[in-house]
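Researcher: Next sequence.
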Amino acid sequence: MTSIFKKIFGSNKQITQENLQITASVKTYVNGKKIEIPHSRKILREPNLIENISIPPFSDEFDKNIKIQDLKDLRRNFTVNLFQMSCNCPEFQEKHIFYTPNHLRRICQHLKDAIDKPLREKNPFLRKVIIRFYNKPEHNFYYLDFEEKHVLYFAGESYWVNVIAENKPDIEYAYNIIEKRWSSKGIPDKAQSLVSEISKIICLE
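Model: Next structure:
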């Protein structure tokens, strides 16, 4: 089942209306009772995050080399320059260098770690978006803006939709589309608008 969801909802492939429908019987618990959830669902809107969120340029005071430890091999360090948004690691040279400096896909692990500190104070919302976008490449990401910026993201095999809210980016909001409830982490200020938008993105049949 997991492989079916990943094949259909993987964010790296072109999404078409024809391949968005799932026909499967899935059971879950709602209020302690086992129920059969709708056997089919569709994604009605393509992910739009990278078209709406970009990395603002760093000033020339960041035009310097920074050594960042590699998490896969703690004995290695790579050189990052935030002004140029560049890194000399193999991952960056093979996968990320082709994107423009303000593109979310420009970020490798070392750029993500280097950008973390300056964004923690200046733009915590963007910081959290970058962290989630880099660490969850299989998820679908959506940008919403109604007086406050929000990012929704979810995995194909989950019925939870995660929410990053601009005014409280460190709270991990999540909405269950089957049980129609928010998690115990809290309810965002724009909950009603968010639920309405979620229903326009994911359709249960």
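Model: The radius of gyration is 19 Å. Residues 109-122 form the longest helix (14 residues).
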